[in-house]
Amino acid sequence: MNLTYNEFVSLMHDDAIVKGIPVHGTFSLTPRCNLHCRMCFVCNPLVADEELSGGQWLDIMKQARDAGMTFCLLTGGEPLLHKDFWEIYTGLRKLGVYTTLNSNGTTITPEIADRLKSMPPVRMAISVYGSSPEAYEKVTGSSAGYEKMVNGLKLLRERGIDFRLRTILTRDTAPDMENLVRFILSYDVPFSYGNFIMPPVVENRNNPQSLRLSGQEIAKYMDKIINAMQEYYDTYGNANADKIEKMRKEDKEQAEKPKDPKREELRKLARGIAASRTFNCFAGLTEFSVTYNGFIRICETARDPLFDLKQMSFKEGHKRLGEAMAAIPDCTDCKKCPDKIRCAPCPPRHFAQTGSYDIKDDYVCEYIKAGVKLIE
Fold first, then answer.
1. Which pLDDT does position 1 carry in this prediction?
2. Rounded to whole angstroms, how far apart are CA atoms 13 and 95?
3. What does the buried/exposed string (b/e) look like for 167-202 if buried means 16 or more CB atoms within 10 Å of the residue's CB?
């Protein structure tokens, strides 16, 4: 059976759901970052001494691989700042895991780019916070960071390393958003952005909520983003148009092929299991996250539950995580809300916002009332 990459990933997840296998891991290698973004909810340089060593990370990663992990994401903070990054990265790649890497791009030197070329990740995701030194400084506190980021992108492109660019809509980036759209599209990559700002997962002296836009404001900027994209494509063309059309053609051809009964039965079983959960995603089911100091959790946005993998095996930690998640209740208000399908309630987000899993998040309700799609 010939499968596209997306079909392969879908098949892996369905099989993992039915078998209870953790197929995707997110590893937050460090809480440290060389930038000081005001909307950041994860960075805290004061606890850097609690970071796992390269050896500790690889021990956890090997256990996760042996338990079924096929895909992973390395993130932070800025993961390239971990003192044992290359020990971790090369060791993980040798385990045969499909690896993606998050970065702000400012720490990429010719030497780092060369090492990535020799053993490239599946993809890198680079965060872009300004289309000029002035705009970049407003968000990150570093005007020099802009040129470093641009140079990092140049180095990656010269070495043929696949990357995507992304940004986030905040009160700081909103005035620059149309320029950010044009900046990102100039690299011939899809435009992607977030518009939901989380409260801090750790105490980092930031107040991200102060940078939130209202649902109505987000709706206004979403229109501006769409118009800026269309204007760019009308002027310069869409470099990804042929690729998108090829993917659509492949999807259509695949849909017209006779269905594999075993594959369809697997998909049905997986969907039934997923639908029975409080969660609307794969978090804690086929996906998991590990903090910089070795605690397994539901996802990057979760504050609770946490299980210390320094004190137990990965298998035991993952088992306890599943048991704890099974006890998390539905939000009563969300359960009876007619907009639930559009909203996709998130228990970790409820907890971060309200301190309880089953109390609704009014800010997300504001999105839905404004007709805004929640993007992260």
1. 54
2. 19
3. bbbbebbbebbbebbbbbbebebbbebbbbbbbbbe
Which of helix, strand or coil describes residue 71? strand
Element (H, E) at 194: strand 191-194
The reported pLDDT for the residue numbered 186 is 96
| Bond prior to 91 in cis (omega within 30° of 0) | no
For the chain, 376 residues long, the average pLDDT of each consecutive 10-residue run is 73 87 95 92 84 98 96 96 97 96 98 97 97 97 96 98 96 97 94 87 79 92 94 90 75 73 88 82 88 94 92 96 88 82 80 86 82 72
pLDDT for residue 376 = 61
Which domains are present in the chain? 5-248 (3.20.20.70), 331-376 (no CATH)
* Whole-angstrom distance, CA of residue 317 vs CA of residue 312: 6
pLDDT at residue number 213: 93
Asked whether 116 and 162 are in contact (CB, 8 A), the reply is no
Q: Which single residue is written with the structure tokens 């895991």?
A: 97
Alpha-carbon gap, residue 25 to 7, rounded angstroms: 19
pTM: 0.91
pLDDT for res 75: 97
Q: Residues 314, 67: contact at Cβ < 8 Å?
A: yes
Contact criterion met (CB below 8 Å) for 56 and 319 = no
Which three-class secondary structure state does DSSP give residue 166? strand
Q: How far apart are the first and last CA of the chain?
A: 33
Structure tokens at 317: 């930690």
Under DSSP, the state recorded for 31 is S
Q: d(Cα 149, Cα 127) in Å, to the nearest integer?
A: 9
Distance CA 136, CA 133 (A): 5
The conformational region for residue 10 under phi > 0 = left, psi -120 to 50 = alpha, else beta, is alpha
Give the angle 57-30-107 at the CA atoms, nearest 5°.
115
Q: Which residues make beta-bridge pairs with 192?
A: 166
- How many angstroms separate the CA atoms of 180 and 132, rounded? 9
